[in-house]
Design brief:
The chain is of the alpha+beta class. The protein folds into 3 domains: 123 residues, 2-Layer Sandwich (Alpha-Beta Plaits), CATH 3.30.70.2220; 202 residues, Alpha-Beta Plaits, CATH 3.30.70.270; 94 residues, no CATH class. The protein is built from 18 helices and 12 strands. The strands form 3 sheets. It has a 6-stranded mixed beta sheet. Helix 13 runs antiparallel to helix 16.
Length: 492
């Protein structure tokens, strides 16, 4: 093949998260994930067979890139993949673009960046209907409520729901005890203890402490795309892409194996998506923060070797991640959890930017009502979020220290309530609590609460708790880590 006549074809699934999270049914989410993953595998095998492994740049996470010999071949390939993807998923779509490239060593990263810009423009220009027009006499799908029902759930399903073809296929895929990413996790763990995935959110929530609550986790790498333009050859680009995929999957699986041991034979988690440096998970609420923290920290530490292997260690010492964690009751809608988690992730990314991307960050929100607007939920709340990894580790440590000392929750809630009654009342409540604990013969609780305040910006030699004055001046609002400690306390 002549270097002067190569065409780069790039694909990416359109609104993949909206497709996966179109309903509140866990089996359909799992089935959608399994279907996307299966299409990824089939696409990669087909591309390698037709064009050779050396010409497949990457194929995973709902996207792909491959070098083909002619423009006509590029056009035919795009038409084929878009047609077959729509036929299998019914309502999801994939976008492809092609352009002539110069694969000369030293230029490939820049060519891929140019293709990525073209792909973003093509995806943005698509004007497809979110759902089909429905006549008044048509019955809507009992699950998604967007498309006409055409099938009835199988008898073994138990629901007898009327479903659109999309939801029907998702549910059929998700009926398997080990499907999608859960099957990949079981194969990776090589353990027989992982027998059954949860049937629904209630099953995950029932395994939590306190019962009934789940965690929705959204993670994403910081500025990973910027590094791709620095890769000079297709071999290094492929090595980095595959290495990044394996790194994210490995850290996700390790964290789940460590913190999510089966309970009553059921795994207390669901893997919604692992795509490149993008991850969506649902876990029981009591392990969500530990799972998120371990993934972000493990990704950061292990990324250094990957950067060295592809010659990028001089550009960046390590890769970092941002995460959003929603803690909510199991009956809170999954699409709403996803919306909140994405907003929290963006908040964490802003902190990462302030830290010059030298560390990852995590933001979290405990949902107590029906609101899904993060700014509205935090209006007037004197929180300290988001947290860098080091600060979050310390916050969780102090929660565990106070729990080990049997800190009365009534004392914590008295201080917490005072946070919303004004700066002075909050100070009086904190001083009163410290004074009460300090008069006890056993000073353990007093010392641990004092240490917590000192760690998060309260200098007790003149500055009254619970306010972090320095952070408050920076953000022009009242700030206290006590808010975050009390809200997280039941879930740690």
């Amino acid at each position: 093949m002549s270097n002067l006549h190569q065409w780069l074809v790039c694909f990416d699934t359109d609104q993949i998260k909206q497709y996966l999270l179109a309903t509140n049914r866990l089996k359909e989410i799992r089935g959608g994930s399994a279907l996307i993953a299966q299409l990824d595998v089939e696409r990669k095998n087909d591309l390698e067979r037709r064009y050779g492994e050396n010409n497949v740049v990457y194929s995973a996470g709902g996207g792909a890139a491959v070098l083909v010999p002619t423009e006509q071949e590029a056009q035919a390939l795009i038409a084929k993949i878009e047609r077959e993807f729509r036929a299998r998923t019914v309502t999801a779509s994939i976008t492809g673009v092609y352009l002539p490239v110069d694969p000369t060593p030293g230029r490939f990263g820049a060519e891929m960046a140019r293709a990525s810009r073209e792909l973003r423009r093509a995806k943005a220009s698509k004007a497809e209907l979110a759902c089909l027009p429905v006549e008044p006499y048509m019955r809507l799908c009992d699950s998604c409520g967007n498309h006409p029902a055409t099938r009835r759930a199988q008898a073994q399903d138990g629901s007898r729901d009327w479903l659109c073809l999309t939801c029907f296929r998702k549910r059929e895929e998700g009926r398997e005890a080990r499907a999608g990413f859960f099957a990949n996790f079981v194969a990776w763990s090589q353990s027989e203890s992982w027998q059954k995935a949860p049937d629904d959110l209630d099953a995950i929530g029932a395994l939590a402490s306190p019962p009934g609550y789940v965690g929705f986790i959204a993670l994403d790498g910081n500025h990973v795309g910027d590094l791709l333009t620095e890769l000079p050859t297709i071999e290094e680009y492929r090595k980095f892409s595959e290495g990044l995929w394996k790194l994210v999957q490995e850290q996700t699986f390790k964290s789940l194996e460590k913190h999510c041991a089966p309970r009553d034979g059921i795994a207390p988690f669901e893997i919604v998506l692992i795509g490149g440096d993008d991850v969506l998970l649902i876990t029981s609420a009591d392990v969500a923060m530990k799972v998120a923290l371990d993934i972000v920290q493990g990704f950061e530490e292990s990324s250094q070797q990957l950067l060295q292997e592809v010659g990028l260690s001089g550009k960046r010492a390590k890769l970092t991640m941002a995460a959003g964690v929603v803690l909510a009751h199991a009956d809170f809608p999954i699409p709403a959890m996803h919306t909140l988690a994405e907003a929290l992730q963006k908040s964490a990314k802003r902190l990462c930017a302030k830290q010059k991307y030298q560390t990852g960050a995590i933001d979290f929100q405990v949902v107590t009502g029906s609101d899904t607007d993060l700014d509205a939920m935090r209006q007037g709340v004197p929180h300290r979020r988001p947290y860098t990894l080091g600060d979050l580790r310390d916050l969780l440590y102090h929660i565990r220290q106070l729990k080990d000392a049997d800190m009365p929750t009534s004392q914590l809630h008295a201080m917490y309530q005072a946070l919303f009654e004004g700066a002075v009342k909050a100070q009086l409540a904190s001083i009163a609590t410290l004074g009460y604990l300090g008069r006890s013969k056993d000073k353990t609780r007093y010392n641990r609460l004092r240490q917590f305040f000192e760690r998060f910006g309260v200098q007790l030699d003149g500055q009254l708790p619970p306010w972090d004055v320095a952070r408050g001046k920076e953000e022009k609002r009242l700030v206290s880590a006590l808010t975050d400690l009390v809200e997280l306390y039941p879930f740690i």
